């Protein structure tokens, strides 16, 4: 009986010791894990590691995109540049073109010469810009230009003058300041100032 009591007490001691060890282990694990988040939050290096694969993937995709543009035919690269010049109506250096649409103008002689000689592009020795057939930038300048063409000016030659030129042409026409008339083959339309027609009857007979 005494032996059994000793065994029971031994088991209790073992259980107590095991419990204490478990608590100590838990506290140790907690103390080790607690400081880990702090350096991660304080230092930029740990936080940058998870994003590295994503950044690498994005850079790879971007480089592939740039490479595909620069391997495209010369005409396609020129169109890409001219589209940027047309849309922005700003003057770009070759470096700025590279940043805007990834076409390396300085690195491709054919593209450079093609742009320099293109009738839709103006090059001043440093910058490229879009060159419309008629240099007008707003409705007032548009009216001045139309006034110079007594026989009428082709609408198709005005459509790239500035971004909202077609809206202004509609306003000029609908506002009664100018009339649209067809050429002999009905295309393209000519725009003339009403004053160029003289009398109201002549305007009605000659205009649309």
UniProtKB/TrEMBL annotation:
Full protein name: TFIIE beta domain-containing protein
Cellular location(s): Nucleus
Lineage: Eukaryota, Viridiplantae, Streptophyta, Embryophyta, Tracheophyta
Domain TFIIE beta: 62-137
Annotated keywords: DNA-binding, Nucleus, Transcription, Transcription regulation
Main location: nucleus
Biased composition (Low complexity): 25-53
Gene Ontology MF term list: DNA binding; TFIIH-class transcription factor complex binding
Record-linked PANTHER family: TRANSCRIPTION INITIATION FACTOR IIE SUBUNIT BETA, TRANSCRIPTION INITIATION FACTOR IIE, BETA SUBUNIT
Region (Disordered): 23-54
InterPro entries the UniProt entry points to: TFA2_Winged_2, TFIIE-bsu, TFIIE_bsu_DNA-bd
Function of the protein: Recruits TFIIH to the initiation complex and stimulates the RNA polymerase II C-terminal domain kinase and DNA-dependent ATPase activities of TFIIH. Both TFIIH and TFIIE are required for promoter clearance by RNA polymerase.
GO cellular component term, pick one: transcription factor TFIIE complex
GO terms classed as biological process: transcription initiation at RNA polymerase II promoter
């Amino acid at each position: 009986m005494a032996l059994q009591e000793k065994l029971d007490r031994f088991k209790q001691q073992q259980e107590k010791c095991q419990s204490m060890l478990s608590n100590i282990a838990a506290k140790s694990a907690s103390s080790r894990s607690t400081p880990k988040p702090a350096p991660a939050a304080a230092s930029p290096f740990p936080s940058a590691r998870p994003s590295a694969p994503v950044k690498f993937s994005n850079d790879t995709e971007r480089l592939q995109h740039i490479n595909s543009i620069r391997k495209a035919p010369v005409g396609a690269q020129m169109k890409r540049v001219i589209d940027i010049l047309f849309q922005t109506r700003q003057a770009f250096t070759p470096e700025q073109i590279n940043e805007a649409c990834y076409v390396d103008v300085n690195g491709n002689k054919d593209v450079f010469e093609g742009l320099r000689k293109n009738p839709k592009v103006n090059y001043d020795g440093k910058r490229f810009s879009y060159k419309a057939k008629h240099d007008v930038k707003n409705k007032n300048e548009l009216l001045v230009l139309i006034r110079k063409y007594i026989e009428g000016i082709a609408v198709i030659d005005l459509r790239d003058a500035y971004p909202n030129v077609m809206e202004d042409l509609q306003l000029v026409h609908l506002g009664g300041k100018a009339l649209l008339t067809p050429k002999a083959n009905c295309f393209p339309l000519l725009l003339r100032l009403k004053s160029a027609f003289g009398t109201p009857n002549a305007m009605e007979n000659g205009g649309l």
